[in-house]
Design brief:
The chain has 282 residues and is of the alpha+beta class. The chain contains nine helices and eight strands. It has three domains: 91 residues, Helix Hairpins; 56 residues, SH3 type barrels (Roll); 81 residues, 2-Layer Sandwich (Alpha-Beta Plaits). Strand 1 and strand 2 form a beta hairpin.
């Protein structure tokens, strides 16, 4: 206490100056070096990303792996700076490990999502850009993180699905094959000429350049229904053209049917009255 009271303002300035010259200067140098290091890491990761794009490396792999590579490099730089400042890193590592264990026990569900993310990256049941159906949700994969998969639905909503679903749910990938088959059933009246209807559908298919010739399209009678003859049109398109061709066929075939006098029947019920029963009721 007497020592503190004996300190003059000039002594305090001297001590502060000595600290700034020694330890303070080290801290400033460490901060500057760390900032430069982070900028270099960022530039390197950008260059690696451009290189991977040129080599046509899968987008999913790039977007998932590069951020983690950057985080690891930054962490290594941070640990090096701490060691330069004389801070014991082993105790910090032990504290981080214990904290991580505690958080892991509290977030077991998130760990299952993490495991699912690893499964998605390694097994690759789908990738960014694929149109998939999973856990009763369907949409285009716009992003994949280690914990969640992001889908964009047809009405422009973003659906976030935990990656644990990837290991426990059925996944339908509509994009992987590159082509998709469309089956459309058209109903015509029994009074119409079904051969004429088939020719009209075939003409619509022939007029669409986006319908593939291999495998060959198929147009055939598929069922004799209660109120109609069912004609199946089956054809293949590229995955990106699927919906455009589907809507084209729905409209083009209706116009072709109208042009050829082919009617699409309404559900109807024929009621027959027995004359003898009618007389008895009177």
């Amino acid at each position: 206490m007497n020592y503190l009271m004996a300190l003059t303002f000039s002594d305090i300035l001297t001590n502060v100056g000595n600290w700034l010259v020694t330890e303070g200067l080290k801290i400033v140098i460490a901060v500057i070096v760390f900032i430069i290091y982070c900028a270099v890491v960022k530039a390197i990761c950008k260059r690696i990303d451009k290189s991977l794009i040129k080599k046509n490396v899968d987008e999913t792999l790039r977007k998932v792996s590069l951020p983690w590579v950057r985080r690891v490099l930054v962490f290594i730089g941070f640990a090096t700076v701490l060691a330069y400042l004389g801070i014991e890193t082993s105790s910090i590592a032990a504290a981080i490990t214990s904290i991580g264990l505690t958080i892991g026990l509290a977030l077991q569900g998130s760990l299952s999502n993490f495991a699912g993310g690893v499964v998605v990256i390694v097994m690759r049941p789908y990738k960014i850009g694929d149109y998939i159906e999973m856990d009763s949700e369907a949409g285009t994969v716009v992003d994949i993180k280690l914990f969640y998969t992001y889908l964009r639905t047809g009405d422009n909503k973003i659906v976030i699905i935990p990656n644990s679903k990837a290991g426990n749910s059925v996944i339908i990938n509509y994009t992987r094959q590159g082509t998709r088959r469309d089956d459309i059933t058209f109903n015509i009246s029994y009074d119409n000429d079904f051969e004429k209807a088939k020719d009209a559908i075939k003409e619509c298919i022939a007029n669409c350049e986006k319908i593939l010739n291999d495998p060959a399209p198929l147009v055939t009678v598929s069922n004799h229904g209660q109120n109609s003859i069912d004609i199946l049109a089956r054809y293949y398109t590229k995955t990106d053209d699927f919906w455009e061709v589907h809507w084209y066929m729905m409209e083009a075939v209706k116009k072709a049917f109208d042009k050829n006098g082919i009617s699409i029947p309404y559900p109807q019920l024929d009621v027959h009255i027995n004359p003898s029963e009618n007389k008895e009721n009177k």
